[in-house]
Amino acid sequence: AQTVTQSQPEMSVQEAETVTLSCTYDTSENNYYLFWYKQPPSRQMILVIRQEAYKQQNATENRFSVNFQKAAKSFSLKISDSQLGDTAMYFCAFLDTGTASKLTFGTGTRLQVTL
Amino acid sequence: SAVISQKPSRDICQRGTSLTIQCQVDSQVTMMFWYRQQPGQSLTLIATANQGSEATYESGFVIDKFPISRPNLTFSTLTVSNMSPEDSSIYLCSVRTGEWNTEAFFGQGTRLTVV
Q1: Which of A19, A112, B108, B112 is 20 to 30 A from residue B14's alpha carbon, by CA?
Q2: What is the pLDDT of residues B4-52, one digit of tens each?
Q3: Is the pLDDT of residue A100 over 70?
Q4: CB < 8 Å to B41, chain A
Q5: Cβ proximity of A114 and A17 under 8 Å
Q6: Residue B92 sits at the chain A interface (C-beta within 8 Å)
Q7: What is the overall mean pLDDT for chain B?
Q8: Cα(B28)–Cα(A114) distance, rounded to whole angstroms?
C-alpha cells in the first residue's frame, strides 16, 4: 500500500515571499501520478498541480512549481510570490495507475499567508 | 471538468439516526468516490461507488454502516447509519471523468455533527 507523508503540519509565509511544502511517499510502483490539492476554508478541494512519474521535467503552473525527486520519493511544492488567497490546507496526493486507481492523501500542511 | 453538487452542506443529527448525503454531477462520470475528513485531518477513502453494482469498501468501512447507491453515471448517495458522535466529520464526494483522466473533482462536502 502507498503512503504519503507531509512532515510540516503548519507553515507561515509573508505575502510576496516564497514557501516550500514538503511531501514524501512510499510505493513499489513505477508509474503513478502525484498531486497537490488546496483546501481553503470553503472546504472546496482544488487541484493545484500534477506530476506524472515518468516525466523528469518538474511541473509548473504559474506561481506554483514542484521539485520531483523520483529516486528519493520526494515531491515538494514551491509557491512563489505568495498571496493572501493562498491561505489554505495543502494536501499531497498519490494516484497509482493500476486497477485500484485511487487517491491516497497526506496529512496536510496548513499554510498561513500574512501581511 | 465536472461540477459536483453535494447536499446537504451541513447537518446536525441525533445519535442513533441515519443521514443520506447526495452527490449530483453535471456530466456522466466513470468513477465516483466517497471520502471522510475528520476534524483537522486528511481525507480517508470510504468506498468507490460502482454504477449498477455494490460499492467497493476500504478497510475499516462496511456496507451496513455506510450503504452507498449509484443508480446512474451522474448520481450517488452515501448513508451514514446508526450515527454516533465519532461519525462527526466532513463527507466528500469525488469524481474522475474517466479511468485515464487523473484529475479528481470534489464536492464542497457535508459537515455532519452528531449530538
Answers
A1: B108
A2: 999 999 999 999 999 999 999 999 988 899 999 998 889 999 999 988 8
A3: no
A4: 107-108
A5: no
A6: yes
A7: 93
A8: 41
A107 and B41 within 8 Å at the Cβ level: the answer is yes
Chain B interface includes A45 (CB < 8 A): yes
Residue B3 contacts A, CB cutoff 8 Å? no
Q: With H, G, I as helix, E, B as strand and everything else as coil, classify residue A88.
A: strand
- Asked whether the beta carbons of A50 and A35 are under 8 A apart, the reply is yes
Could you tell me if A28 and A97 are in contact, meaning their C-beta atoms sit under 8 angstroms apart? no
A31-75 pLDDT, tens digit each: 899 999 999 988 889 999 999 999 989 999 999 999 999 999 999
* Secondary structure (3-state) at B115: coil
Give B103's contacts in chain A (Cβ within 8 Å): 47, 50
Pairing of strands B10-13, B110-114: parallel
Q: Is A8 on the interface with B (CB under 8 A)?
A: no
User: Contact A107/B43, CB-based, under 8 Å?
Assistant: no
CB B6 within 8 A of CB B22: yes
**Residue A52, SS3?**
strand
In the three-class reduction of DSSP (H, G, I as helix; E, B as strand; rest coil), residue B86 is classed as: helix
